[in-house]
């Protein structure tokens, strides 16, 4: 390339390389968007990989090292953007790192001196040092993404260990780069990668193990001078909140609150410095400080709302307590919990999110509901008051006393609901999460009251993304009488913003019929209930008519299918063990409906992404359906 002059656009060698890279990257982008069959797609990917391999071998001796290395990393970044992680790892980042030694970077995760001597023999002032840091960091990202593509739920122990190795490698890279202020971009990107991986691991119960990495990411943001600016405060507060959440997941709430209060102090220190250095605070800066303070306050409230009510064991508890049914006619704030909400948060949207966080528990599952079981009566009271307050905010009744932060409210039947598009309103996502929490805690009065007007709101929206939430609420409503041949309790109702009281109906006549059938046990022997069939048909419709990313939440979908399979398996076993010639008399014993339910279970598993969650169940469903169909065909 040097023979033709400067190595820049216009040089024949450079232009030829750029043209060939554009062709192969364009080919891979089109391949990513195409819907080819798996074998054909694999062959095309291999063709793209071979082409890229040949390009690097062809141009390496023709280009100076600095240009060749820069192009390696840029192409690698482009491949990451189109999610070709394996190709980026092997043909770009891995190829770049081969120049140092044959040592596997995975073998150097805790030895700083060996790491420096291997990858930075010329020190950090070398012009290629930034390239090397970038290649090491992106290599780890690619490894993590490749693990996720093969084992999204990280069920394999090897996959889990690989993720922790990636976290250790990212931490080591950041540790070495931290003293170099010009590499602050690497520290910032590293904290993002660590947070992403740790949040994934927290979702599968690994909070105790990821805590140290999130702590490290938080401290790095504090130790890097350029990252201490207001511009990065929102992200720093997010890391603080993640650390606090880890402590709560580990049942160490006191440490979570202490860390959140520490974060609040750090935010206040930065605010004081900002006031000194700037004579006039702009609206954007105020917004950033407000958001960061809110995140910390929510984590403090998460524990304070309970601990402020705990009493010593020998403390005399008065029998007379304010009834929520009586309190609903009072003006906001009506309970101790609502007064604390009003003191800590100055708008209803913030109060609602604080309620959600206080009720959230990583050990709870939506469709495996259980009532609150703490020994302290006060804690049970707090949980009831939180739902009571959340329902009041969601219904719009607290607007009478709190007029801040409500914009874009629209009337939905008898209730007010705040549209998600408005920044300061209660979002639709938050409302759906509140209903799921009510289901999880078996707060049936709250669930019945909230689900009706939230569903009305969702049905009125044109945005297809709301259809996913609507399907989830529909599944919860159908599962409710099946999980609980219900013990309906009379409870408080939602009152309209006017003085008139309006009770939400406890269920339609159809629902009452469903419950009476479930409770009576009058179903014919061997026949699935009508409600079970309706649930199976509904979940099949939800999966069949939706795109993969618009299907109901994976956890809910899996629990529904597991429930259907347990019922189906029990029903079939009862008929099979009755000695009545099951396969020959399939119609007589109503088994055809069980076969229909079993077929739906199999179809939903195939059309959704839950097959890897419980492989044993998938095998059982497939074998049972195959056996039934074969025997029916022979009979």
TrEMBL record:
This is CFA54 protein. InterPro entries: CFAP54. It comes from the Eukaryota. The lineage of its organism: Eukaryota, Metazoa, Chordata, Craniata, Vertebrata. One of its GO terms (biological process) is cilium assembly.
């Amino acid at each position: 390339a040097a023979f033709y002059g400067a190595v820049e656009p216009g040089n024949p060698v450079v232009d030829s390389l750029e043209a060939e890279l554009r062709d192969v990257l364009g080919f891979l982008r089109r391949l990513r968007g195409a819907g080819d069959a798996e074998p054909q797609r694999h062959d095309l990917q291999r063709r793209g990989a071979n082409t890229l391999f040949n390009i690097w071998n062809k141009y390496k001796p023709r280009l100076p090292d600095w240009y060749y290395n820069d192009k390696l990393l840029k192409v690698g970044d482009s491949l990451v953007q189109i999610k070709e992680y394996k190709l980026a790892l092997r043909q770009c980042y891995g190829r770049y790192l081969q120049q140092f030694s044959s040592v596997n970077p995975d073998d150097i995760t805790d030895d700083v001196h060996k790491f420096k001597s291997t990858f930075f023999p010329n020190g950090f002032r070398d012009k290629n040092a930034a390239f090397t840091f970038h290649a090491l960091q992106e290599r780890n990202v690619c490894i993590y993404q490749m693990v996720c593509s093969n084992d999204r739920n990280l069920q394999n122990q090897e996959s889990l260990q690989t993720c922790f190795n990636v976290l250790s490698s990212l931490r080591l890279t950041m540790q070495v780069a931290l003293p170099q202020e010009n590499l602050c971009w690497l520290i910032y990107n590293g904290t993002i990668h660590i947070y992403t991986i740790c949040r994934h691991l927290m979702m599968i119960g690994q909070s105790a193990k990821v805590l140290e990495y999130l702590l490290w990411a938080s401290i790095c943001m504090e130790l890097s001078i350029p990252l201490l600016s207001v511009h990065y405060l929102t992200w720093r507060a997010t890391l603080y909140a993640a650390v606090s959440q880890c402590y709560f997941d580990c049942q160490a709430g006191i440490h979570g609150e202490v860390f959140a209060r520490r974060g609040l102090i750090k935010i206040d220190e930065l605010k004081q410095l900002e006031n000194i250095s700037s004579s006039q605070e702009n609206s954007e800066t105020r917004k950033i400080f407000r958001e960061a303070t809110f995140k910390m306050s929510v984590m403090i409230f998460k524990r304070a709302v309970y601990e402020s009510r705990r009493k010593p064991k020998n403390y005399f508890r008065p029998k007379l307590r304010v009834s929520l049914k009586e309190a609903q006619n009072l003006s906001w704030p009506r309970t101790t919990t609502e007064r604390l909400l009003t003191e800590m948060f100055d708008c209803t949207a913030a109060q609602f999110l604080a309620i959600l966080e206080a009720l959230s528990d990583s050990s709870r599952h939506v469709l495996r509901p259980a009532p609150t079981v703490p020994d302290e009566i006060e804690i049970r009271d707090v949980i009831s008051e939180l739902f009571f307050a959340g329902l009041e905010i969601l219904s719009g009744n607290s607007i009478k006393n709190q007029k801040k932060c409500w914009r874009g409210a629209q009337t939905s039947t008898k209730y007010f609901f705040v549209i998600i598009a408005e920044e300061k309103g209660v979002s639709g996502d938050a409302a759906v999460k509140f209903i799921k929490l009510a289901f999880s805690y078996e707060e049936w009065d709250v669930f019945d009251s909230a689900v009706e007007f939230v569903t009305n709101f969702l049905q009125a929206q044109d945005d297809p993304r709301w259809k996913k939430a609507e399907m989830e609420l529909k599944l919860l409503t159908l599962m409710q009488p099946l999980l609980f041949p219900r013990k309906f309790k009379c409870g408080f109702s939602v009152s309209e913003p006017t003085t008139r009281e309006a009770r939400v109906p406890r269920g339609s006549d159809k629902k009452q019929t469903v419950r009476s059938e479930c409770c009576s046990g009058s179903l014919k022997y061997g026949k699935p209930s009508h409600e079970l069939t309706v649930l199976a048909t509904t979940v099949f419709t939800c999966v069949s008519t939706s795109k993969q990313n618009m299907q109901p939440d994976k956890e809910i979908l899996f629990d529904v299918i597991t429930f259907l399979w347990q019922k189906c398996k029990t029903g079939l076993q009862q008929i099979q063990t009755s000695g009545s010639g099951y396969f020959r008399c399939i119609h007589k014993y109503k088994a055809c409906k069980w076969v229909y339910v079993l077929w739906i279970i199999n179809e939903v598993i195939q059309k959704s992404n839950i097959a890897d969650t419980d492989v044993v169940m998938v095998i059982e469903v497939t074998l049972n359906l195959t056996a039934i169909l074969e025997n029916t065909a022979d009979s």
